[in-house]
Structure formats: C-alpha cells, structure tokens
Design a protein that fits this description.
Elements (H helix, E strand, L loop, with lengths): L2 E2 L12 E3 L14 H8 L9 H10 L7 E12 L2 E12 L3 E7 L5 E8 L2 E6 L4 E5 L2 H9 L3 E2 L3 H5 L10 E6 L5 E6 L4 E10 L2 E11 L2 E11 L10 E8 L4 E12 L19 E2 L7
Parallel strand pairs: 1-9, 8-17
Antiparallel strand pairs: 2-4, 3-4, 3-16, 4-5, 5-6, 6-7, 7-8, 10-11, 11-12, 12-13, 13-14, 14-15, 15-16
Length: 286
C-alpha cells in the first residue's frame, strides 16, 4: 500500500515531460559545488533562530516567473526490476497542467503521464496498462516506481522541495558550507533540508524525508544557474530517491524554453483508443 502525507508547500506550478527511457545505470549523488553556488546565490550560511522566516519564504515562493515551460532531459531510473534509460520531454503550464512522456528509444514510448487541475492519467506502454485518478500524485508515484505519493511534483522537478506539515523546526550550520533546516511532524515524520542563502530567499540543495527514523525519500538538486536566462535557480540535475523501494531516478535537463504556448489537447486526460484506465485512489496505488 502506498502512503500519502500532509504537506504545507504552496507552490502551484505543474511540469510535464516527455521522455525516452528504460534501462539505466546506477546513479548516486555527488558532491555539490557549494562555492560556485554560494557566489551566485549569496552567503552560504543562514542564521539560527530564523526558522520561521525561512519556512515562510519557502512557502511563499512563487518559483520561476514563467507561465509555461518546455524542456528536454535525459531520464535514468534504477530499481530492482532493472535499469531504465531514455529521454524525457517535459511540458507544464500554470496553474496545473503537466505532461511527461518517457521514450526508451526512437519512436519507442515507455510511459505517458498527464496532470490537469489535480486529476491524472498514466499510460504504461510496455505493459499495455492505463490508470486514472482524481489525485494525480498517486499516478506520478506509480510512474516513478514508488509507493509514497509525493505532492507538488512539478515543484520537485524545478528544484522546489515540498515541506512537511511540522510542529518543530531547527536550523543549524554545517561545517560543509551549508545550513540544515530540520522539521518534525506528527507520527514520526521528519524532513531535513540542506540550504544556502539566495538573493530572493533560501535555496535547497537536498531534502531528506523520514518516517519513524527511517529514510523514505531523498531529493537532490544540482547545477543551478545553468539556464540563467530563463530561471536562474532551476537545477540542471534533479535526483529523486526512494530507499525503501530501492528506486533512484535522475532527470538531467538538456534544453529548456519558457513561456511557450501549448494547445489544450496536449493536456487531454482522455486515454487513446485501445486503453481502458483503471481507477486509482491515493493510499491504494501500491
């Protein structure tokens, strides 16, 4: 059974992708280039005692000042089922339209994920299966091969980690050149975010989510500033890990353009002919 958590993140952007891929190599996080990021974003340390202000800044952030985004990325996934590699094509339009296509080779579709106004459609071309849900988070998790329904997945794909609903917070400086914001919620849920200070607020390098003291999700954002003409802080590399499921996914952006006009049909939730979607509810997505 999957899980759905309660989060306090408020960013409403949606991203879509179209990707090529299955069969990927093992990908591990590497050291973050903190000095370069600090020089671009500002001082690397945030002040202890400013937890409430930092959280408020992260919650109120509107993300990149763009209405739509089109991007091409390489896509890599490692799981117990094997390796998956390809290209991902992402399209999003504010406030809530997202399309992700994964391709495993030339004209070899692997998966399609579409989200619009919170609802979602997922096509699994390899297995000839289709799923639909009133809560697109469930289907996004299924696309990634995890049982945890991550919210605000478009924020994750553009470098904005969600925040858990928390009761306690603490900020500490790390000897490695960044600050760590620790959040504690109900039921043993926790989150730790590695942060540096940016011009318009805190910038996340990594976010680790735990439950009962065990890691359940790990987000990493690297090479920010690669597309400074569009959105300076969108990372070039986004890594998403689910330790319990032994799944690791990496998106590495190649091209990106903003404020593109998309036809409404691009985000159509109607399945193509030959597919009969199975209804999925959050908490039952497996």
């Amino acid at each position: 059974m999957g899980e759905t958590w309660t989060w306090s993140w408020t960013w409403t952007t949606r991203v879509a992708s179209r990707g090529n891929g299955r069969r990927v190599g093992n990908v591990r996080s590497v050291a973050v280039a903190l000095l370069a990021l600090a020089s671009a974003c500002g001082p690397a340390f945030l002040n202890a005692g400013d937890e409430a202000k930092i959280v408020a800044l992260m919650q109120s952030s509107a993300g990149p000042a763009i209405d739509s985004l089109k991007a091409t990325a390489s896509f890599a996934q490692r799981s117990e089922k094997g390796l998956l590699r390809g290209d991902a094509y992402l399209f999003f339009r504010r406030p809530s339209s997202l399309r992700i296509e994964l391709l495993g080779g030339v004209d070899n579709p692997v998966g399609l994920f579409v989200s619009r106004e919170g609802r979602g459609l997922l096509l699994d071309y390899w297995n000839g299966a289709a799923y639909e849900s009133a809560d697109a988070r469930c289907l996004f998790s299924r696309l990634l091969g995890a049982g945890l329904a991550l919210p605000d997945f478009t924020g994750i794909l553009t470098g904005q980690p969600p925040l858990i609903a928390f009761e306690e917070s603490e900020l500490k400086a790390s000897a490695k050149g960044y600050s760590i914001l620790s959040l504690k919620g109900k039921g043993g849920v926790g989150e730790k975010i590695q942060l540096v200070s940016g011009q318009h607020g805190p910038v996340a390098l990594r976010a680790v989510f735990t439950k009962g003291g065990k890691k359940v999700a790990d987000l990493s954002f690297r090479q920010r500033g690669w597309k400074s003409d569009i959105a300076p802080l969108i990372p070039r590399i986004v890594e998403i890990g689910f330790p319990r499921e032994k799944v690791q996914i990496v998106f590495t952006y190649k091209k990106m353009s903003a404020n593109v006009k998309f036809p409404d049909e691009l985000f159509d939730l109607a399945p193509p002919e030959g597919f009969s979607p199975v209804a999925v509810e959050c908490g039952s997505e497996g």
